[in-house]
């Protein structure tokens, strides 16, 4: 919990600046998707603006690794739409094939559909080796599952009190 608190407070997490150089770092695994929205600060260092992490569902967990990586980009752009729409930005991924696939003519239908959605944004895709992407790799692999949400716990408790609620 201490690490999480450090990651979501200044000086690590910074405020969004629509004029700053912006990068979206993404990664994916069979377990989940992760992304970090970063911006260049006055000291020329990149700092996180926002984090995104999501577990894959049963169908997504069967995707090919290339599709995982593309899904991570699509979901991250959807999540950070308000920050990225109308902005020039870079997407950084450890999947070298994605750098070329965005402009490829013959794509499988799923990738083609996602590529069409991405045409609303102005970005370039850059490859960075996986060992230099540990920051976002952690978000795609360490997924925290909630066994029972608080509202579900309350409903479960009420059902125990009054069986007619089932």
From TrEMBL:
This is Reverse transcriptase RNase H-like domain-containing protein. CDD domains: RNase_HI_RT_Ty3. Residues 17-121 form the Reverse transcriptase RNase H-like domain. Keywords: Endonuclease, Hydrolase, Nuclease, Nucleotidyltransferase, RNA-directed DNA polymerase, Transferase. PANTHER family: ENZYMATIC POLYPROTEIN-RELATED, RIBONUCLEASE H. The keyword Isomerase does not apply. Signal peptide: none annotated. It holds the Pfam family RT_RNaseH. SUPFAM superfamilies: DNA/RNA polymerases. The keyword Nucleotidyltransferase applies. It comes from the Eukaryota. GO terms for molecular function: endonuclease activity; hydrolase activity; RNA-directed DNA polymerase activity.
